[in-house]
Amino acid sequence: MKKRIFLCLAAAVFIQFLPAEEKTAPVSLEDQRRETLRYGTENEIIDLIQALKNENADYLDGELASVIETTKNGKILSGVFTFFADREKPGLEKRAMAAVEYWDEETNDSVIAAIDYLGKVKAEEATDPLIDIINSNESRFMNNAFRALGRIGSASKDESDFIADYLIDFYDQKNPTDENMREIIVALGELGNRKGTAFLAEIAGNNDERATRRMAALGALSKIGDSEGLPAVIKSLQSSDPNVRAAAVAALGPFAGDEVETAILEAFRDSYYRTRIGAAQAASERKMTAAVPYLKYRAERDDVPAVKDEAIKALGAINTSETSEILSTLFFNRKNSDRVRLVAGEMLIKNDPDAFAERFIAELDEAKTKNQTPLYNGLSRIIAQAETKKVEDLALRFLTAGGVVEKSYAIDMAVKNKLTSLGNQIKELTDPKNGSLSRKARDALDKLGIPYSDAEPD
């Protein structure tokens, strides 16, 4: 008996002095997440999907696809379908088709998410089941099904012609609701088929039509870009409804000709702010140098911040030496609002990061010194996307002395600019205790081609 007690005490002492990793092997974040998928509640799984979305992570896609093969849980199904749809990622078509074909056995949310997914991945095989669900007059699903049909048809000429005829016939013959009408119009725009041009032009140019339908038709004509639709767009510029005028200006982007450019310039004078926004967007899409003086005026003096934003973005899209000088003045003038400076700075860094990175970082440091936190955070976000080696010192500083968000930005800079010199600092973040940052660091090392080991000290 005494011998047995002695042996037990000896074993206890031995275990006490074992290395920590031999007592309990640490569970990695990835393994924890896989356990959540196997055993977690619907809310835990939805929270996990949101975390993966925030991290732009895809390493659990296979496990997520397996989960929905057997589950009937509507929240999980809709969460996974939406997560894949947002990235237009194929792989769930079979399960989504089953949800559409046997819709009466699924929750409304999961059927809607399945329809949206099939549209986003342009699953041609879903055309007939979607038409069946529309013809069943299940109002819960019709709007999403119309939209999905438009997206699917945009990827196939044969399907496109068939779907265009079906949508127009449904609009004319089936007495759809106002909401269904608008969705059919939007779907024809997604489809991009010229068969829809005359139909849409009639709606857009009709002063007796509801404004919402006219606006939808104008947007659809813009997506199709067929010159046959231009007269209806031009006519709509004279509408008494300011929202229709704004939609008409925004629709001018893909069309050509002096008449179009004149209309865009004239729209900068419209008292309705959305029309001015539309003019800026049209000028941006066309890279319209003739609009630069108007855009400069709006960027500096418009009393609506959203108009200033679009004017600045348009100047960035036009991207000439003149617009670069205008943007530089807007950004480096510290008397301008943070909002103006951030939009202008983003355009400068996007267009010519080598020329502006160093001065941009100086402004970032100035914002931190003066405790201008919103400005500092915005500038940090922008510089993290700069494609220039001139961010290397800043990335190193963020990695060694920054907070979690700054470290995350530093990893972005390292990956975007192949800053392999920062490999050791990134390795230090791979410890699972760093949570999502650990996963991001590992992904970054993989992309940079830098080997690392789970056994390395962090």
UniProtKB/TrEMBL annotation:
**Residues making up the signal peptide according to the UniProt record:** 1-20
Q: Which UniProt keywords apply?
A: Signal
* InterPro entries named in the record: ARM-like, ARM-type_fold, PBS_lyase_HEAT
Q: Name one GO molecular function term.
A: oxidoreductase activity
PANTHER family to which the protein is assigned, alphabetical = DEOXYHYPUSINE HYDROXYLASE, PBS LYASE HEAT-LIKE PROTEIN
Taxonomic placement? Bacteria, Pseudomonadati, Spirochaetota, Spirochaetia, Spirochaetales
Q: Please report a single Pfam family linked to this protein.
A: HEAT_2
Q: What is this protein called?
A: HEAT repeat domain-containing protein
